[in-house]
Amino acid sequence: MSDNTTITNGVFEFLTELKNNNNRDWFETNKPTFKKHQSKVKLFFEMVKENLNHHDEIEKMKLFRIYRDVRFSKDKTPYKSHFAGSFSRLGAHLRGGYYLHLKPGESFLATGFWAPNKEDLFRIRKELEMDASKFREVINKKELKTIWGELTGDEVKTAPKGFDKEHPDIDLIRKKQFVFVRKLSDKEVLSPSFIDEVDKSYKAIRPYFDLMSDILTTNLNGESIL
């Protein structure tokens, strides 16, 4: 097993130390160690992207900066105590994205639609208003549900403007995000098979992405809008 296909315990040990010493002096002193771990994590994320491209089309992989934007935050600690990155699917015809968050005791995978624009959100809601049966069938598929559990995401309290709060599928229509999250134990993340588990999880979400891509590239008559 090559180094770039595993997350080592050293990565988590560094993140724990950073959490306990979240200040610029400590970080500058330990910057060479940070760079070493960041480089290994980036290689891991690049391998995840390579695996994804065997069964999907990824336009961009982004490893997020360790530096926090503290301008509008009460928490003024300058650094994140995690590594995280995202993988964006290719072009207007493929929708959705993948996310990986590495933090001791708080690691997780996520996938779906975090911040759909108002046009996409309206289109999804209209589809669900018209007929949510296919959507429910897909999100309740055994493999998907075993790995990812329930659909999550922020939602409005009653009903979006213009939608009936008594609609039988209002539980879906009122969502503002359409996201799946899989929490991970440290043991899972540090396992040699973790990279395969990440890929297996992302593969399992594909029927959901296929359906959502179909919805977001057609009108309510099923005609392409691309």
Automatic annotation (TrEMBL):
InterPro entries (alphabetical): CHP02453, UCP028451
Pfam families xref list: DUF2461
Record field: transmembrane: none
Highest rank taxon of the organism: Bacteria
NCBIfam families given in the database record: TIGR02453 family protein (TIGR02453)
Name of the protein described by the UniProt record: DUF2461 domain-containing protein
Source organism: Flagellimonas halotolerans
Lineage: Bacteria, Pseudomonadati, Bacteroidota, Flavobacteriia, Flavobacteriales
